[in-house]
Amino acid sequence: MPINNDEQFEEDVRNVANELFPNSAAPEGRYAAGRERDGIFDDGDTVHIFEDTTSRKKEKIEDDISKSAALVSDIRRERPGHNVKIWIVTSNPPTADQEQAGINGRRKARCPVEVISYATLYSRLFNARHLIQQRW
Known about the structure:
Blueprint: H1 6-20, E1 31-32, E2 35-36, E3 39-42, E4 46-53, H2 58-78, E5 83-90, H3 96-109, E6 113-117, H4 118-123, H5 128-135
Parallel strand pairs: 4-5, 5-6
Antiparallel strand pairs: 1-2, 3-4
């Protein structure tokens, strides 16, 4: 996917997330706990926190996880019955260091953290295997 700018990339990720969580109440906005967020979606069972980046640096992933981990605590206080998941979406396939930062971040955030590329996120919009079977 050609990336024209960071703002467009953020919008593209939000659009895919909107499609992935169509039953989510209206996206909760771009600000929570006094900080800008790339996306927050509550599907009734899980609050999905999205951060995205065009950076290839592991420090960016670590910063996004730290920022989101603080929000996880707030969400758990406000909605004790909800699960929380952090999604870190990269414009290119994540580096090994970025993936490791996600693994390490799970302990800090105390919730699932998924570090994936935009292409991988986008591919979750449909079941390719099912589509191919239907075409046959």
